[in-house]
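Chapter review: from sequence to fold.
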Amino acid sequence: MGTVISLDDHRNARRGLVAAARNALPRATLYFDLGSPYTYLAVERADRLFARLEWLPASADVLQEAELTEAGMHAVCERARLLGLPLVWPEEPPQSVRGAMRVASLAVERDRGAAFVLAASRLAFCGGFDIDDPEILAEAAAAAGIGLRETLAAAGDVGRDGPIEEAGRLLLAAGASRLPALRVGQMLFCGEDRLLEAAAARTAV
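The token string follows.
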């Protein structure tokens, strides 16, 4: 009599091997600034490309990124078109969105960074909303499962600015010139256009 193979056992064993392989990959960290349209272009793909991605808010001001010119905005529009992503500019393109970045730091602490960044960046650059507006900020936070009271408290907590600026300084010291930036193990990839390169480097390690 032949041996009966349990398909459920086989599937479970395969899931275990896949999970072990993913856990063996080097840590990947995405540094972002919600005021940058390139963060929006990146996060839509980063969440799918990287399992167990760590999200960290970092100040683009510390990196001294240049303000978007008309030519820069045109380049963002063209990049969004190539990626097949909708793009709607806020009436006043955000430069420094401190309140939203503070709430992002809270979301990261709650392990809800991906959900918050996705919601906030979509509201800013897909809906054209001001994400530092308390109502819009509350909507993004609600999508990440964060309550109104704690959202407003975090948005006004200036003590959260220090770690966000420090993250920017550490990136600058490591040679970063723009956000978003991806750290994969000891390697640093700057710019949303290097996401695929970072993903390939992660699996090749």
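Two observations follow directly from the output. Residues 7-24 form the longest helix (18 residues). Residues 13-22 have pLDDT under 50 and may be disordered.
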